[in-house]
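Chapter review: from sequence to fold.
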Amino acid sequence: MNKWFFFSASLLCLAVADAGLTRAMAVDERLVIISEQTGLVASDRTDSPDCEYSAEFGVYLCPHASAGQALTATAGDRSARTATLDALAGDGVLFIPDSTNKRVMSFDPFTGAQIDSAFITLDDVATGTAIHALMRPNGTILVSDQTRDVVHQYNLDGDYQGVFAPAGGTNTSILDNIRGMALRPNGNLLVTVGASANANAVAEFDFNGQHVGNFIANNSGGLDSPFDVYQRSGGDWLVSSINSDEVLRFSSDGVALGQFAEVLSFPQQIVDLANGNVLVSNFSGSETGVLEFQPNGDLVDRYNPGGLSGYRGIYELGNGNLLVSTSGGVYEINRSEVIINTHHTGQSRFIQFAKLGPPLELEYTVGPFVDHDTCPTETETSIAAGQAAAYCYRIRNNSSVTWTLHDLEDSEWGVLLDGFPVTLSPGASVFLNQERSPAETVTSEATWTAYNPGPVDEATATGSVTVNVVPPSIELQMTLRLDHDPNECGKNESLSVVEGAHVGVCYRVTNTGLTTLSRHDLEDSVLGSILDGFAFDLAPGAQVFVSLGHTINEDTVFSATWTAYNPGPEDLVDSTNSVTVLVDIEIFHDRFESP
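The token string follows.
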């Protein structure tokens, strides 16, 4: 049976930000921390109508530096842009926003060297304080804006595409004082929210920037002013919570799982490493620097080379060193707390790895069939002979092209689609779920081709799955014990007893296959027919035993065969085993004769 379903799925205003922050740290670190938290310039006094007094912080907050200090956005040259684009198509790059000069820079993920000082020159009118730049699978680059309360979107040519989220523009009831972002496996965007009605949450947006609710609910698990949200390779999420001085842990579905680690006192960006350790960049407090934790949250060490402060971003380079971004620039350091290189000077924010993926992505998965609405998640599965397997082909459009026609061919199941009309818009996905019952273990390779009439705009994607067909099987284990107890099995495969001893013979059978077996026969060479068509549902992995007593008068070998099957008979399998009881005269002498 084949069924097909598709789903569319104050103004001490810091004149030059770098020097100002350094000076302010010596004068009043409180102002620096407030500035970092709000994305505005904090001051104890005001001489500008643009500054507003904040009752929450007890200071004036100004949207920009003092008048007369021009921003100098340096455009990247063509060779640097080309080098970045080549790297994006190859081993990838690191994006780091320079929030003072309103640009997104690119760096080498192995050496940390700067590739382009302004891969994207951010729109000066639209942009406030850029915190985080990440690339979506379709190649568009999203930039979180802490003070304009939106996520901007740019293309790879550096052209401004407008506000991505919230769709429709600024809406502080959804996003206000935003910082770090992340992409869920389904392509949805997650954004940390620090203020207003939706404060202390992680908001979620679909591929079109529409708000679909909160991935992490307001104040969940004690979340208080989140700064970054990061998914570990194991699937759980870590969120830095700056007001509660900790990193919190959440499930793959956003459910609070408790504290991962305490961090005093301003944790910002989070990344995990290949060995499972976690790095946290900590802006201020007694634990300023980069903190490294074991996967369970135990502290490994802290790295804080002399001369650095105000840590924001963190990334482990391919050469083993750490690239850090701070209020003063981008630096390469090692775990011996030595500054290896200064790669950039200026206000630098989160560090994000980016790499162009394929325009069309096929997720081919397989598993036991549940229903036509449910796709399995694995690429290999085991099923019982005759059991139905779900073969799911989920295709995602990572490009900016809309495709309208589709072919799908499977090496095992042949041509499944041929010019099938489905409109697959950028970012959209559809899946086809097919029920099949392979007769034997098989690996299937699939190729999905999407195109437009002509044909033009053609793209392909491939995937493979393996289904292991497991035949019915059982295993019989026989054991012995002295003094028969029908509710207990012994542990011996052989015994020596005196003549006339009463022993218990136990027959324990295990279903080692994947087929439930409901009928059972048991035949013993000594005790004869013990079971004949006995009705009992022996599920996969389950065990059942029968124990009988027998008086031993001579050396005896009990050899038995357990046969299991289903009515028909079908799925018939058997297993044989034996145990031996010996009559030993020495035992009699030891037991009944005096020394």
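Two observations follow directly from the output. Confidence is low (pLDDT under 50) at residues 1-27, 66-75, 589-595. The radius of gyration is 34 Å.
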